[in-house]
Amino acid sequence: MDKELQVKLLPLRNRIDSLDSQILELINERARTAQAVGDIKHAHNEQGPVFRPEREAQVIRALQGQNKGPISEESVEAIWSQIISVCRGLEQEIRVAYLGPAGSFSEQAAFEFMGSAIVGVPCPNFDEVFRTVEAGGANIGIVPVENSTEGAVNRTLDLLLHSPLSIIGEHSILIRHCLLTQSGTTEGVTRVLAHPQALAQCQHWLGMNQPALNREPVASNAEAARIAASDPGVAAIASDIAARAWGLSIVAEGIQDDPLNRTRFLAIGQIDTLPSGRDKTSLILAVPNEAGAVYKMLAPLSENGVSMSRFESRPARTGQWEYYFYVDIEGHQHDPAVVTALEQLQHRCAYFKVLGSYPRQ
Ligand SMILES: O=C(O)C(=O)C[C@]1(C(=O)O)C=C[C@@H](O)C=C1
Hints:
Elements: H1 3-44, H2 53-66, H3 73-91, E1 95-99, H4 105-114, E2 119-123, H5 126-134, E3 140-147, E4 151-152, H6 154-162, E5 166-174, E6 178-181, E7 191-194, H7 196-201, H8 203-209, E8 214-217, H9 221-228, E9 234-238, H10 240-246, E10 249-253, E11 262-269, E12 279-286, H11 293-303, E13 308-315, E14 323-330, H12 336-348, E15 351-359
Parallel strand pairs: 1-2, 1-3, 7-8, 7-9
Antiparallel strand pairs: 3-4, 3-11, 5-11, 6-9, 6-10, 12-14, 12-15, 13-14
The protein binds prephenic acid.
C-alpha cells in the first residue's frame, strides 16, 4: 500500500480498533445484564418465557428514535436484533420451527426475525410446524401467512383456526426466486419443481422463457432444490440461499413476475405478548349467512375508533356458503378501545377467536 495512504489511514484504524474494544466490552456487559434478567425470570417461573417480543420491539424502536445517523434505522434494527438474539440465547436456548429443508424462505424469515442465536428446527410441512411448537419441541414457529402476488397462504389460515397457539409477531421478507439446476443451464432438463405458490409467482416468466419444462408442485422450494441436487433432469425454483445450501447453479435470477414480491410471516408460540405501544391484533370471526351480517359484525370497530388493516375470508366447509373471516385490527387486545370493541363484536359473532396481539413490524 502507498506509504502516504498508510500514514493517513493508521490513526483512523487505531481509533476503530479502540472503539471496537469498547463496543465489545459494552456488549458483554449488556449480555451479563440480560443473563441476570434471565436468572430472575427462571427463579420466578421455571416455565416463564424468556422471549418477550414487546420488550424487544420497544428496545429497537427507542434506539431508532435516538439515532442521529449516519447509520440508517434499518441498520439499527439489524444490529440490535442480532445483539438481542445473542443476549436472549445466553438466557435460554430458543428453538424455532419452520418449513425446511435448509435454504427455505421460511428459514430466512426465522433467522431474520429471531437473529442468529437460535436453534433451527426445520419441519416437512406447516402442520408439523404447529405440532412441534404445540408439543414443546420448539419455543416459536414461523409460518408464511400472505404473499403480495398470490394472497393468503390458506393452510396457515386453516391451522390457526384450530391451534391453541398465539400469534406473537410478524416479519416480511422480499422473495427473490431463482431457477436452479446442477449444470447452470436447462439442457437435458425436462421438469421444474417448486412449491405451488412459487410456481404461481413465476408463471409468466416460465411461460415466456422455459415453456417446455413440466411444472410440478412439491412441499417447498427447498425440497425442490434438494431433489434437483440429485437429479440432473430437474430444475428447482428456490432462493440463492437454497442454491448454496444444495450446491446448485443459478440459471436465472429474480424470475418472480412481481419484482417487489414479498411474503409476510407470522411468529407463533405460547406467549401472552404485552402491549408494546404499536401493536396489531388478529381475530377469526364468523356470522350467520344473512344479508348485512358482515357489515353489522364489524360496526363496533369503527364505532370505537379501531382501524381494520386486513380482512380475509375462508370457506367454513359447511356447504352453506358460510365463511370464517380473518381480521387484523390496529392496537393491542388490552388497549381500552380495543377491549370495548372486542366485547361488542363478540356478541354479534357466531364464532370469535383472538389469535393474538403483537408488535407491528
Ligand atoms: O428484558 C428482558 O426481559 C430480557 O430478557 C432482555 C432482552 C434483551 O436482550 O434486551 C432479551 C430477551 C427478551 O426477549 C427481551 C429483551
